[in-house]
Specification:
With 305 residues, the chain is of the alpha/beta class. It has an eight-stranded mixed β-sheet, with helices on both faces. The structure holds guanosine-5'-triphosphate and magnesium ion (MG). The site of magnesium ion (MG) has 5 residues, from helix 6. Guanosine-5'-triphosphate binds next to helix 6.
Length: 305
Amino acid sequence: MFFLGKLKSGLSKTRDNLLDKVKGLVGINPQLDRAFLEELEGILLSADIGVVGTNRIISGIQEESKKKNIKGSDKIFELLRNRINSLLENSYKNRNLSDLSTKPWVQMIVGVNGTGKTTTIGKLAKRYLGDNRKVLIAACDTFRAAAGEQLEIWANRVGVDMIRSQPGQDPASVAFDAVQAALSRGTDVLIADTAGRLHTKSNLMEELKKVKRVMGKCLPGAPQEILLVVDATTGQNALSQAKIFDDALGLSGLVLTKLDGTAKGGIVVAIASELKIPVKWIGVGEDVSDLEKFDSKSFVEALLE
Ligand SMILES: Nc1nc2c(ncn2[C@@H]2O[C@H](COP(=O)(O)OP(=O)(O)OP(=O)(O)O)[C@@H](O)[C@H]2O)c(=O)[nH]1
Ligand SMILES: [Mg+2]
Protein backbone atom coordinates (compact mmCIF):
# COMPACT_ATOMS: atom_id res chain seq x y z
CA MET A 1 0.00 0.00 0.00
CA PHE A 2 2.89 2.29 0.84
CA PHE A 3 4.42 1.55 -2.53
CA LEU A 4 1.21 2.33 -4.37
CA GLY A 5 0.70 5.54 -2.41
CA LYS A 6 4.16 6.71 -3.38
CA LEU A 7 3.62 5.73 -6.98
CA LYS A 8 0.30 7.55 -7.01
CA SER A 9 1.85 10.75 -5.73
CA GLY A 10 4.71 10.41 -8.22
CA LEU A 11 2.23 10.01 -11.03
CA SER A 12 -0.23 12.57 -9.70
CA LYS A 13 0.07 14.98 -12.61
CA THR A 14 -0.68 12.31 -15.18
CA ARG A 15 -3.34 10.83 -12.93
CA ASP A 16 -5.07 14.20 -12.60
CA ASN A 17 -4.85 14.72 -16.32
CA LEU A 18 -6.21 11.29 -17.24
CA LEU A 19 -8.49 10.14 -14.46
CA ASP A 20 -10.13 13.49 -13.71
CA LYS A 21 -10.82 14.14 -17.37
CA VAL A 22 -12.35 10.69 -17.91
CA LYS A 23 -14.46 11.12 -14.78
CA GLY A 24 -15.62 14.47 -16.12
CA LEU A 25 -16.53 12.85 -19.40
CA VAL A 26 -18.53 10.11 -17.70
CA GLY A 27 -20.38 12.83 -15.80
CA ILE A 28 -21.36 14.54 -19.05
CA ASN A 29 -22.15 11.47 -21.11
CA PRO A 30 -23.47 8.29 -19.46
CA GLN A 31 -23.49 6.40 -22.77
CA LEU A 32 -20.47 4.55 -24.06
CA ASP A 33 -21.23 5.78 -27.56
CA ARG A 34 -19.29 7.13 -30.49
CA ALA A 35 -19.25 10.70 -29.14
CA PHE A 36 -17.90 9.43 -25.80
CA LEU A 37 -15.10 7.49 -27.49
CA GLU A 38 -14.15 10.47 -29.63
CA GLU A 39 -13.74 12.59 -26.53
CA LEU A 40 -11.84 9.79 -24.83
CA GLU A 41 -9.50 9.63 -27.79
CA GLY A 42 -8.58 13.29 -27.28
CA ILE A 43 -7.91 12.70 -23.58
CA LEU A 44 -5.61 9.74 -24.29
CA LEU A 45 -3.69 11.70 -26.90
CA SER A 46 -3.28 14.62 -24.51
CA ALA A 47 -1.64 12.25 -22.00
CA ASP A 48 0.95 11.31 -24.66
CA ILE A 49 -0.32 7.78 -25.17
CA GLY A 50 0.35 8.37 -28.86
CA VAL A 51 -1.66 7.65 -31.99
CA VAL A 52 -0.87 3.93 -32.18
CA GLY A 53 -1.55 3.28 -28.50
CA THR A 54 -4.71 5.37 -28.51
CA ASN A 55 -6.09 3.60 -31.57
CA ARG A 56 -5.43 0.20 -30.03
CA ILE A 57 -7.07 1.21 -26.78
CA ILE A 58 -10.15 2.66 -28.46
CA SER A 59 -10.67 -0.30 -30.79
CA GLY A 60 -10.06 -2.70 -27.89
CA ILE A 61 -12.70 -0.90 -25.84
CA GLN A 62 -15.15 -1.05 -28.74
CA GLU A 63 -14.59 -4.78 -29.10
CA GLU A 64 -14.81 -5.61 -25.44
CA SER A 65 -17.87 -3.45 -24.81
CA LYS A 66 -19.66 -5.01 -27.76
CA LYS A 67 -18.80 -8.53 -26.68
CA LYS A 68 -19.89 -7.93 -23.09
CA ASN A 69 -22.80 -5.72 -24.14
CA ILE A 70 -21.61 -2.81 -22.03
CA LYS A 71 -23.64 0.35 -22.65
CA GLY A 72 -22.86 2.62 -19.71
CA SER A 73 -19.81 4.85 -19.74
CA ASP A 74 -19.28 4.24 -16.01
CA LYS A 75 -17.63 0.93 -16.98
CA ILE A 76 -14.95 2.81 -18.88
CA PHE A 77 -12.41 2.66 -16.05
CA GLU A 78 -12.36 -1.14 -16.04
CA LEU A 79 -12.21 -1.24 -19.82
CA LEU A 80 -9.35 1.25 -19.91
CA ARG A 81 -7.41 -0.62 -17.25
CA ASN A 82 -7.77 -3.89 -19.16
CA ARG A 83 -6.62 -2.36 -22.42
CA ILE A 84 -3.66 -0.49 -20.99
CA ASN A 85 -2.59 -3.55 -18.99
CA SER A 86 -2.60 -5.77 -22.01
CA LEU A 87 -0.61 -3.23 -24.06
CA LEU A 88 1.99 -2.93 -21.30
CA GLU A 89 2.27 -6.65 -20.71
CA ASN A 90 2.78 -7.37 -24.39
CA SER A 91 5.87 -5.20 -24.43
CA TYR A 92 7.59 -7.55 -21.96
CA LYS A 93 7.55 -10.55 -24.25
CA ASN A 94 10.71 -11.59 -26.10
CA ARG A 95 13.15 -9.82 -23.83
CA ASN A 96 15.30 -11.52 -21.27
CA LEU A 97 14.28 -10.22 -17.87
CA SER A 98 16.25 -12.42 -15.48
CA ASP A 99 18.39 -9.69 -13.95
CA LEU A 100 21.51 -10.21 -11.86
CA SER A 101 21.69 -13.86 -12.83
CA THR A 102 25.44 -13.73 -13.53
CA LYS A 103 28.31 -12.11 -11.67
CA PRO A 104 29.48 -9.46 -12.26
CA TRP A 105 26.28 -8.16 -13.78
CA VAL A 106 27.34 -5.25 -15.98
CA GLN A 107 24.87 -2.47 -16.62
CA MET A 108 25.56 0.20 -19.17
CA ILE A 109 23.47 3.34 -18.78
CA VAL A 110 22.90 5.43 -21.91
CA GLY A 111 20.73 8.29 -23.08
CA VAL A 112 20.54 11.81 -24.43
CA ASN A 113 21.77 14.77 -22.38
CA GLY A 114 20.21 15.50 -19.05
CA THR A 115 17.69 12.66 -18.97
CA GLY A 116 18.74 11.53 -15.50
CA LYS A 117 21.39 8.86 -16.16
CA THR A 118 23.75 9.78 -13.33
CA THR A 119 20.92 10.28 -10.85
CA THR A 120 19.45 6.92 -11.83
CA ILE A 121 22.81 5.25 -11.24
CA GLY A 122 22.86 6.65 -7.70
CA LYS A 123 19.35 5.34 -7.15
CA LEU A 124 20.10 1.92 -8.64
CA ALA A 125 23.30 1.58 -6.63
CA LYS A 126 21.40 2.32 -3.46
CA ARG A 127 18.75 -0.21 -4.38
CA TYR A 128 21.27 -2.99 -5.08
CA LEU A 129 23.18 -2.21 -1.90
CA GLY A 130 19.95 -2.59 -0.01
CA ASP A 131 19.68 -6.07 -1.51
CA ASN A 132 23.15 -6.85 -0.14
CA ARG A 133 24.87 -6.70 -3.49
CA LYS A 134 28.43 -5.57 -3.92
CA VAL A 135 28.19 -2.57 -6.22
CA LEU A 136 30.78 -0.73 -8.29
CA ILE A 137 30.09 2.29 -10.46
CA ALA A 138 32.21 3.56 -13.32
CA ALA A 139 32.61 7.06 -14.71
CA CYS A 140 32.60 6.36 -18.44
CA ASP A 141 31.24 9.87 -18.99
CA THR A 142 34.57 11.51 -19.73
CA PHE A 143 33.09 14.23 -21.88
CA ARG A 144 32.12 16.81 -19.28
CA ALA A 145 34.77 17.76 -16.76
CA ALA A 146 32.22 17.80 -13.95
CA ALA A 147 30.61 14.47 -14.84
CA GLY A 148 33.03 12.40 -12.79
CA GLU A 149 32.61 14.68 -9.78
CA GLN A 150 28.86 14.43 -10.01
CA LEU A 151 29.06 10.64 -10.05
CA GLU A 152 31.50 10.72 -7.17
CA ILE A 153 29.04 12.71 -5.07
CA TRP A 154 26.54 9.92 -5.64
CA ALA A 155 29.14 7.26 -4.88
CA ASN A 156 29.89 8.93 -1.54
CA ARG A 157 26.27 9.58 -0.71
CA VAL A 158 25.25 6.00 -1.37
CA GLY A 159 28.49 4.43 -0.15
CA VAL A 160 29.81 2.53 -3.17
CA ASP A 161 33.20 2.25 -4.84
CA MET A 162 33.81 4.03 -8.08
CA ILE A 163 36.19 3.69 -11.01
CA ARG A 164 37.33 7.21 -11.81
CA SER A 165 38.44 8.66 -15.11
CA GLN A 166 40.15 11.67 -16.58
CA PRO A 167 38.20 14.17 -18.65
CA GLY A 168 38.83 13.36 -22.29
CA GLN A 169 39.88 9.76 -21.60
CA ASP A 170 38.51 7.16 -24.01
CA PRO A 171 35.31 5.92 -22.33
CA ALA A 172 36.03 2.42 -23.62
CA SER A 173 39.30 2.32 -21.69
CA VAL A 174 37.46 3.28 -18.50
CA ALA A 175 34.95 0.54 -19.26
CA PHE A 176 37.81 -1.93 -19.66
CA ASP A 177 39.33 -0.96 -16.30
CA ALA A 178 35.92 -1.11 -14.66
CA VAL A 179 35.10 -4.62 -15.86
CA GLN A 180 38.58 -5.81 -14.84
CA ALA A 181 38.08 -4.29 -11.41
CA ALA A 182 34.63 -5.84 -11.07
CA LEU A 183 36.10 -9.25 -11.92
CA SER A 184 38.96 -8.97 -9.47
CA ARG A 185 36.92 -7.46 -6.63
CA GLY A 186 34.06 -9.94 -6.74
CA THR A 187 31.56 -7.23 -7.63
CA ASP A 188 27.94 -8.28 -8.07
CA VAL A 189 26.78 -5.28 -10.09
CA LEU A 190 28.87 -2.88 -12.13
CA ILE A 191 26.98 0.20 -13.32
CA ALA A 192 28.66 2.31 -16.00
CA ASP A 193 27.69 5.92 -16.53
CA THR A 194 28.09 7.30 -20.06
CA ALA A 195 28.03 10.80 -21.47
CA GLY A 196 24.72 12.16 -22.70
CA ARG A 197 24.54 12.30 -26.46
CA LEU A 198 22.10 13.06 -29.21
CA HIS A 199 20.90 9.82 -30.74
CA THR A 200 21.23 11.46 -34.16
CA LYS A 201 25.01 11.94 -33.84
CA SER A 202 26.39 8.78 -35.39
CA ASN A 203 30.00 9.25 -34.25
CA LEU A 204 28.81 9.43 -30.64
CA MET A 205 26.70 6.33 -31.11
CA GLU A 206 29.79 4.55 -32.48
CA GLU A 207 31.61 5.50 -29.29
CA LEU A 208 28.93 3.71 -27.26
CA LYS A 209 29.17 0.65 -29.47
CA LYS A 210 32.87 0.59 -28.74
CA VAL A 211 32.25 0.74 -24.99
CA LYS A 212 29.90 -2.19 -25.38
CA ARG A 213 32.39 -4.15 -27.50
CA VAL A 214 35.24 -3.62 -25.10
CA MET A 215 33.15 -4.74 -22.14
CA GLY A 216 32.28 -7.89 -24.07
CA LYS A 217 35.93 -8.62 -24.79
CA CYS A 218 36.80 -8.28 -21.13
CA LEU A 219 33.92 -10.42 -19.99
CA PRO A 220 31.94 -12.50 -22.48
CA GLY A 221 28.26 -11.57 -22.28
CA ALA A 222 28.95 -8.11 -20.84
CA PRO A 223 27.24 -5.71 -20.71
CA GLN A 224 24.44 -7.93 -19.46
CA GLU A 225 22.08 -4.99 -19.50
CA ILE A 226 21.94 -1.79 -21.53
CA LEU A 227 19.40 0.63 -20.14
CA LEU A 228 18.27 3.73 -21.96
CA VAL A 229 17.29 6.57 -19.68
CA VAL A 230 14.48 8.63 -21.15
CA ASP A 231 13.03 11.84 -19.77
CA ALA A 232 9.26 11.39 -19.65
CA THR A 233 8.71 15.09 -20.14
CA THR A 234 10.20 15.06 -23.65
CA GLY A 235 7.03 13.67 -25.17
CA GLN A 236 6.91 11.66 -28.36
CA ASN A 237 10.61 12.31 -29.10
CA ALA A 238 11.23 9.60 -26.50
CA LEU A 239 10.08 7.10 -29.11
CA SER A 240 12.69 8.06 -31.68
CA GLN A 241 15.39 8.12 -29.00
CA ALA A 242 14.46 4.61 -27.94
CA LYS A 243 14.29 3.33 -31.49
CA ILE A 244 17.69 4.68 -32.53
CA PHE A 245 19.49 3.62 -29.35
CA ASP A 246 17.89 0.19 -29.67
CA ASP A 247 19.02 -0.18 -33.28
CA ALA A 248 22.56 0.83 -32.35
CA LEU A 249 23.03 -1.10 -29.12
CA GLY A 250 20.17 -3.53 -28.58
CA LEU A 251 18.50 -2.21 -25.43
CA SER A 252 17.51 -4.42 -22.53
CA GLY A 253 15.04 -1.89 -21.32
CA LEU A 254 14.20 1.68 -20.47
CA VAL A 255 14.30 3.84 -17.40
CA LEU A 256 11.67 6.54 -17.65
CA THR A 257 12.57 9.46 -15.42
CA LYS A 258 10.81 12.62 -14.25
CA LEU A 259 7.36 11.07 -14.34
CA ASP A 260 6.63 13.21 -11.29
CA GLY A 261 7.07 16.32 -13.38
CA THR A 262 4.69 15.60 -16.21
CA ALA A 263 0.99 15.18 -16.94
CA LYS A 264 2.01 13.13 -19.94
CA GLY A 265 3.06 9.87 -18.30
CA GLY A 266 1.02 8.08 -20.97
CA ILE A 267 4.32 7.98 -22.85
CA VAL A 268 4.86 4.66 -21.02
CA VAL A 269 1.91 3.25 -22.95
CA ALA A 270 3.09 4.79 -26.23
CA ILE A 271 6.47 3.13 -25.81
CA ALA A 272 4.87 -0.22 -25.07
CA SER A 273 2.54 0.04 -28.06
CA GLU A 274 5.11 1.09 -30.59
CA LEU A 275 8.44 -0.35 -29.54
CA LYS A 276 8.15 -3.50 -27.46
CA ILE A 277 11.05 -2.40 -25.28
CA PRO A 278 10.17 -2.95 -21.64
CA VAL A 279 10.18 -0.07 -19.21
CA LYS A 280 12.13 -1.51 -16.30
CA TRP A 281 12.36 1.39 -13.86
CA ILE A 282 10.61 4.68 -13.40
CA GLY A 283 11.94 7.80 -11.75
CA VAL A 284 9.40 9.74 -9.73
CA GLY A 285 11.55 12.39 -8.08
CA GLU A 286 15.06 13.64 -7.42
CA ASP A 287 15.61 11.80 -4.15
CA VAL A 288 17.70 8.63 -4.02
CA SER A 289 14.60 6.64 -3.06
CA ASP A 290 12.53 7.96 -5.96
CA LEU A 291 13.05 4.99 -8.25
CA GLU A 292 10.44 2.30 -8.65
CA LYS A 293 10.66 -1.05 -10.37
CA PHE A 294 8.15 -0.74 -13.16
CA ASP A 295 5.20 -3.05 -12.77
CA SER A 296 2.38 -2.63 -15.24
CA LYS A 297 -0.41 -3.61 -12.84
CA SER A 298 0.68 -1.14 -10.14
CA PHE A 299 1.25 1.52 -12.76
CA VAL A 300 -2.25 1.17 -14.18
CA GLU A 301 -3.72 1.03 -10.69
CA ALA A 302 -1.85 4.16 -9.62
CA LEU A 303 -3.04 5.91 -12.73
CA LEU A 304 -6.66 4.87 -12.93
CA GLU A 305 -7.97 3.74 -9.55
N1 LIG B 1 11.85 15.44 -10.86
C1 LIG B 1 12.77 14.54 -11.22
N2 LIG B 1 14.01 14.96 -11.55
C2 LIG B 1 14.91 14.04 -11.92
C3 LIG B 1 14.61 12.65 -11.98
N3 LIG B 1 15.71 12.00 -12.40
C4 LIG B 1 16.67 12.95 -12.59
N4 LIG B 1 16.20 14.17 -12.30
C5 LIG B 1 16.91 15.46 -12.40
O1 LIG B 1 17.32 15.66 -13.73
C6 LIG B 1 18.51 16.45 -13.77
C7 LIG B 1 19.55 15.78 -14.66
O2 LIG B 1 19.95 14.59 -14.04
P1 LIG B 1 21.34 13.88 -14.34
O3 LIG B 1 21.34 12.61 -13.58
O4 LIG B 1 22.48 14.79 -14.16
O5 LIG B 1 21.16 13.58 -15.89
P2 LIG B 1 22.22 12.92 -16.89
O6 LIG B 1 21.45 12.14 -17.87
O7 LIG B 1 23.27 12.20 -16.15
O8 LIG B 1 22.82 14.22 -17.60
P3 LIG B 1 24.12 14.33 -18.55
O9 LIG B 1 25.18 13.49 -17.92
O10 LIG B 1 24.45 15.78 -18.59
O11 LIG B 1 23.70 13.82 -19.90
C8 LIG B 1 18.95 16.60 -12.33
O12 LIG B 1 18.56 17.85 -11.86
C9 LIG B 1 18.18 15.50 -11.59
O13 LIG B 1 17.93 15.80 -10.25
C10 LIG B 1 13.26 12.24 -11.63
O14 LIG B 1 12.87 11.06 -11.67
N5 LIG B 1 12.40 13.24 -11.27
MG1 LIG C 1 25.36 12.37 -16.23
